[in-house]
Amino acid sequence: MTSLDTRSPLAAKTIANYGRPLWRRWLLSRESAVIVAVILVWVIASSVVPYFGTTTTLDFLLLDATPILLIALPMTFVIITGEIDLSVASTLGLSSVMLGVLTKGGMPIELAMVFCLVVGLLAGAVNGFLVTIVGLPSLAVTIGTLALFRGIAVGLLGTTAITTFPPFWQNLAQARFGLTGIPVVMVLVVVLIVIFALVLHVTPFGRGLFALGLSKDTATFSGVKVNRAKFIAFLLTGLISALAGIYWTLRYGSARGDNATGLELSVIAAVLLGGVSIFGGKGALHGVIAGVLLIGVLQSALRLANVSSDAINIIIGTLLIVSVLSPRILAWARRLRPSAPRQRK
């Protein structure tokens, strides 16, 4: 007969976590710390950086953050399973090029958008197939498809750009609600956030993703269809990256093969900064949203303060390293802390 050994570190940690009041678990968490950091950075930047606290700044901040917000949603699913997808920016660029080529060839833009989403699904299916069926490491696979998808995009257009798109869709991509500074596209973003949050934190599929990230064998014996879950996660990254490519093209009015080059680093930095473990099995979507906004606020404030793009990249890279190392450092500090002596019976 087997029983749970409550003396094990995992069991003790679980009991300690859920033995705390709910308000402490919510407020004393990494996600809450990131939310507080967003508020503090915004307040400080508004008082120090000229013109930062205006509705115009808010408008451009949200418009710039929208592609990262969109792609960060499915990327959270992928990283929670213990995998990674580095090809998302290349999928965005390929979608952008396809939208430009198809509309220039005479296809209605609405139909071209649907075709771009199908291309994104196919890109995600390629990654998912190589990772789940062939069994290759996701890091190696998506580095390869990063180069493949970007190469196809650049090969289709070369160094040229397509800038002829219907004014209605271009205006819609940049429209805002009156004088609030809130872009209309945020309606779509909020709807997707709600859907992804419900799937991740409420449904059995979402709980299976967490179980898979903690232990593939345990998840398998618990009834989680491991390969199917990972495949769906990669499909979603491809689909949403293509959607972000459509938005990117209409917002900037330009389809180019090098659109969004390097954006995958900002997405991954935001997800990890928001509390998702790079090793899988841990994270919350509200922390990811806060991570995206924190990076967006920092970038916007630094640009207005005339900080160079290279310096901004250094700061974002430093945040990425800190977000990966901080959980390990905290765990190491807890292990060094002396435990309370046991009472003898």
TrEMBL record:
It is found in: Cell membrane. Keywords: Cell inner membrane, Cell membrane, Membrane, Transmembrane, Transmembrane helix, Transport. InterPro entries: ABC_transp_permease (IPR001851). The keyword Ribonucleoprotein does not apply. It is a multi-pass membrane protein. Coiled coil: none annotated. GO terms for molecular function: transmembrane transporter activity. The chain crosses the membrane at residues 33-54, 60-79, 111-136, 148-169, 181-200, 231-250, 262-280, 287-305, 311-333. GO terms for cellular component: plasma membrane. Pfam families: BPD_transp_2 (PF02653). Its main location: membrane. PANTHER family: ABC TRANSPORTER PERMEASE PROTEIN YPHD-RELATED-RELATED, AUTOINDUCER 2 IMPORT SYSTEM PERMEASE PROTEIN LSRD. This is Autoinducer 2 import system permease protein LsrD. It comes from Lacisediminihabitans profunda.
